[in-house]
Write a structure and sequence with these properties.
Number of domains: 2
Distance between the termini: 98 Å
Family: Belongs to the COBRA family.
CATH architecture of the largest domain: Sandwich
Organism: Thalictrum thalictroides (Rue-anemone)
Helix content: 10-25%
Pfam families: COB_C (PF25079), COBRA (PF04833)
Keywords: Glycoprotein, Membrane, Signal, Transmembrane, Transmembrane helix
Protein name: COBRA-like protein
Structural class: alpha+beta
Strand content: 25-35%
Number of strands: 28
CATH class of the largest domain: Mainly Beta
């Protein structure tokens, strides 16, 4: 009896031991996957501190509320907010209204029928705000407003990486103890992709007078931080990369359907007759693309060509092509990660700035257009292409043309990561072994042919 119980216990323990590792492994894998994707949604390893910070500064109290200056700072190094610009929305915690705005406007007024005489600018529970266009009268402007919602990236132009407006809020608290913070902030820039956290009260902002001799401070300040995720913005990449080199005639194209092929029924062939169609080059309100028909179906293709190999330097040519007939790219940026970017000697037609997200690693650089020269990438067509060449100094300890070392590890266009070809498709160096085998085959074939000719002649 005791032997049976002991055998049963041992069998039970074996089952438990075989069950636990399997289930524990599943739980650990699920947890790690959750953590990776949870953080990856709003984390960019090449710009770990990048975000858009929206700051509200209450500058005065009014009989039924307050006046605040709202400032949007784009602290992203290479991702800007392009046309048609940002759209900001939030929800009021109580029954607040917007009496007036300077430097921006709401898209809807809402139902203000309960007000007599002085009608608010907006009575919506969830107002949606957009920037004013350039050229509005001066009495409707404040500093850093009225740029059509276009905000440069911090790394490209810090002075233009800010947008502001002023808002007068009514039916709200009249002190920092009674004001309730807006909730549920959303930011479109111009499409989806940004996730905003809750508003948090922070130390009041200080201001210097024009003569810089007097310091004042806001009556109350709160911040909202928004981070970007390419996964939220779109299902597929928005750009792809192709490769070529001087040592191989093969061109490695973008992968097929690199950006998805859902636009196949809305693409046109590169034909002069089709290009003259009415509305081809006219932007749409919903910003829907009209692409040139390609195998990759991407709006943007980046081509990296290893051009020359000198004794102490090597040279690369980079070309960016726009395949979208409805969009010009202003303030574009191209970010490349490659180990030899720590020794850039000269960039010929683009501006260049090294990015050092981690203090000990300098392998990432940002390229962008020169003002009034090529900072505008035109829509698809003859002008939809910009090019530059890069001269890099060799590090004799690491430089090689083998195994695709000369090609970038990551490429970003306008802050979105581009799809690279698979590594086994990269242009490869001619193999000396293959050349020797070819020589041996040719030699043997020649000898056999000579023998055959000799036999035929002898007959």
């Amino acid at each position: 009896m005791a032997d049976n119980l002991q055998a049963e216990d041992q069998r039970t323990m074996r089952q438990i031991n075989s069950f636990l590792p399997r289930q524990l492994g599943i739980l650990i894998s699920a947890f790690l996957a959750f953590m990776i994707f949870h953080h990856a949604d709003a984390y960019d390893p090449l710009d770990p501190n990048g975000n858009v910070t929206i700051k509200w500064d209450v500058v005065s109290w009014t009989p039924d509320g307050y006046v605040a200056v709202v400032t949007m700072n784009n602290f992203q190094m290479y991702r800007h907010i392009m046309k048609p610009g940002w759209t900001l929305a939030w929800s009021w915690p109580k029954k607040e209204v917007i009496w007036s705005m300077v430097g921006a406007q709401t898209t809807q007024q809402g139902d203000c029928s309960k007000f007599k005489g002085n009608i608010p600018h907006c009575c919506e529970k969830t107002p949606t705000v957009v920037d004013l266009l350039p050229g509005v009268p001066y009495n409707q402007q404040i500093a850093n407003c009225c740029k059509g919602g276009v905000v440069a990236s911090w790394g490209q132009d810090p002075a233009s990486a800010v947008s502001s407006f002023q808002v007068s809020v009514g039916l709200a608290g009249t002190s920092n103890k009674t004001v309730k913070l807006p909730r549920n902030f959303t930011l479109l820039g111009p499409g989806p992709g940004y996730t905003c956290g809750p508003a948090k009260i922070v130390p009041s902002t200080t201001f210097l007078s024009p003569d810089r001799r007097r310091k004042t401070q806001a009556l109350m300040t709160w911040n909202v931080t928004c981070t970007y995720s390419q996964f939220i913005a779109r299902k597929n990449p928005s750009c792809c990369v192709s490769f070529s080199s001087f040592y191989n005639e093969t061109i490695t194209p973008c992968p097929n359907c690199a950006c998805g092929c859902q636009h196949n029924n809305k693409c046109i062939k590169s034909d002069s007759k089709l290009l003259s169609m009415v509305g081809v080059n006219t932007p749409r309100k919903d910003n829907t693309p009209l692409l040139q028909c390609t195998r990759h179906m991407c709006p943007i293709r980046v081509h990296w060509h290893v051009k020359l190999n000198y004794k102490d330097y090597w040279r690369v040519k980079v070309a960016i092509t726009n395949f979208n007939y409805r969009l010009n790219y202003t303030l574009w940026t191209l970010v490349v990660q490659h180990p030899n970017l720590n020794n850039v000697t000269q960039v010929f037609s683009f501006d260049y700035k090294p990015l050092v997200p981690y203090q000990s690693i300098n392998d990432t650089g940002m390229f962008y257009g020169m003002k009034f020269y090529n900072d505008l990438l035109m829509e698809a067509g003859p002008q939809g292409n910009i090019q530059s060449e890069i001269l890099l100094q060799k590090d004799k300890n690491t430089f090689t043309l083998k195994q695709g070392w000369a090609f970038p590890r990551k490429v970003y266009f306008n802050g979105d990561e581009c799809m690279l070809p698979p590594p086994d498709m990269y242009p490869f160096l001619p193999s000396s072994a293959n050349a020797m085998d070819s020589f041996k085959f040719t030699t043997v074939a020649t000898v056999l042919l000579s023998v055959l000719v000799a036999i035929l002649l002898s007959e």
